[in-house]
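// run 5 | inverse folding | seed 20
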């Protein structure tokens, strides 16, 4: 616990409490002024260290006059010190008779047996006070007896018994204030203790979460390194397998029978599928680690779209799906890595063909648009700003089975597949769309999925037409 914090035990121990801990000074001052207004007896309340906490009095002409007499000035000071330090004894009360004939009542202020300060009632004028002044005048101190008696008579005239009752009345009121203040202090202290404990627990949980997060990041890094290493080591022998299968199919090692050629073609096809998977894993590990370098340049989007369509046309014809390109009549420039953007469009269009039944259609289109391109802080993808800027919009629309609304965000997760059963009709690893999203992010773009009701899906990729740093 910090040095300036007080423990709950300290706050609940009366011996360690101060008057200021329990009663607000403004409230104490208001009570003192009310007391003086009702009973016309001056009142001062001091803390245990002699600090004046509250007072209510008018100017006392008697002491102003006596203090003006050099021979009595020290006596006035002694009176003030005496009433502040006079022992009260076991009863908690004491009376002090001043040389001036005035009197004071001192009441100890205690709480649960512990002294917190004292209240001083007075000066007041008792019945026998004039005798002291007469003695003082006879002592040769140049006191004007008539004037002194006049000032003494200006004080509230009370007998000592009445003032004692006023002192006990004041003490009861102060006890009530102290009790209420202590109860409020305990409530506040317990609340603060509860808040501190909750904060400590939350800090501990945050520390554990941070540790777990750091550990997960380290595991993720190790996983990416593992994938990159394994993929690289698998790629070399697999390239040899594919190469030798192609040589066998070409008859370099001799003529093959029909069955042998079919087996060799199967080996080559499966090898190429496995090679594509390894390439995907390598791309994913580079994207996750941030080591994938994009070679961005000024690119015309229209030829890119037409090239993707021509590349996948044999696949579409084989399945009986109409594949269309909509590029317009004019070129559409943008700033991008042509190879990686082609990879994005190939993946999306190939998926569209795969999930579109025969006699369906897939259309790949491109057009200029203006959107609010969001600038992101890459580690957490937090949106920092958004501004309108020119962009190029690619649309891949199909009439296939569609994607349920609940699945539209999850399909971009790594290795996620809508149909993950062993009997699913369409193959795949669940890497394609994950890589697509990361490549789009690397181009400072956005990707989203829209429904093509009543059938099919529209996937929209938006990429800035100029560098994001441009004005």
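// decoded
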């Amino acid at each position: 616990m910090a040095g300036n914090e007080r423990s709950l035990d300290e706050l609940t121990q009366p011996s360690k409490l101060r008057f200021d801990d329990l009663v607000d000074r403004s409230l104490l001052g208001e009570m003192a002024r009310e007391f003086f207004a009702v009973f016309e007896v001056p009142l001062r309340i001091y803390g245990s260290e002699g600090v004046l906490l509250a007072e209510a009095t008018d100017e006392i002409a008697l002491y102003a006059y006596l203090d003006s007499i050099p021979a009595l000035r020290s006596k006035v000071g002694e009176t003030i010190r005496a009433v502040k330090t006079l022992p009260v004894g076991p009863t908690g009360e004491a009376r002090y008779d001043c040389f001036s004939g005035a009197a004071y009542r001192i009441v100890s202020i205690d709480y649960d047996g512990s002294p917190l300060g004292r209240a001083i009632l007075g000066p007041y004028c008792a019945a026998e006070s004039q005798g002291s002044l007469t003695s003082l005048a006879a002592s040769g101190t140049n006191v004007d007896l008539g004037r002194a008696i006049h000032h003494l008579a200006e004080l509230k005239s009370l007998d000592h018994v009445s003032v004692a009752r006023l002192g006990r009345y004041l003490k009861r009121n102060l006890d009530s204030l102290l009790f209420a203040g202590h109860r409020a202090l305990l409530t506040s202290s317990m609340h603060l203790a509860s808040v501190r404990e909750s904060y400590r627990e939350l800090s501990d949980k945050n520390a554990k979460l941070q540790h777990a997060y750091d550990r997960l990041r380290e595991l993720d890094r190790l996983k990416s390194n593992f994938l990159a290493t394994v993929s690289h080591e698998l790629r070399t022998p697999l390239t040899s397998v594919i190469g030798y299968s192609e040589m066998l199919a070409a008859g370099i090692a001799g003529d093959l029978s029909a069955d042998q050629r079919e087996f060799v073609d199967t080996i080559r096809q499966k090898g190429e599928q496995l090679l594509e998977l390894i390439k995907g894993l390598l791309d994913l590990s580079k994207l996750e680690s941030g080591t994938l370098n994009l070679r961005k340049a000024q690119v015309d989007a229209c030829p890119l779209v037409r090239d993707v369509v021509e590349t996948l046309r044999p696949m579409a014809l084989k399945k009986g799906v109409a594949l269309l390109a909509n590029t317009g009549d004019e070129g559409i420039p943008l700033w991008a890595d042509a190879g990686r953007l082609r990879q994005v469009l190939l993946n999306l269009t190939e998926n569209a063909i795969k999930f579109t039944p025969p006699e369906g259609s897939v259309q790949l289109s491109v057009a200029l648009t203006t959107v609010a391109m969001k600038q992101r802080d890459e580690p957490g993808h937090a949106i920092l700003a958004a501004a309108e800027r020119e962009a190029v919009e690619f649309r891949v629309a199909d009439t296939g089975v569609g994607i349920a609304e609940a699945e539209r965000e999850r399909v971009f997760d790594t290795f996620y597949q809508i149909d993950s059963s062993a009997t699913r009709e369409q193959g795949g690893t669940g890497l394609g769309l994950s890589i697509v999203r990361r490549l789009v992010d690397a181009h400072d773009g956005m990707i989203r999925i829209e429904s093509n009701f009543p059938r099919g899906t529209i996937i929209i990729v938006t990429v800035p037409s100029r560098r994001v740093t441009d004005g």
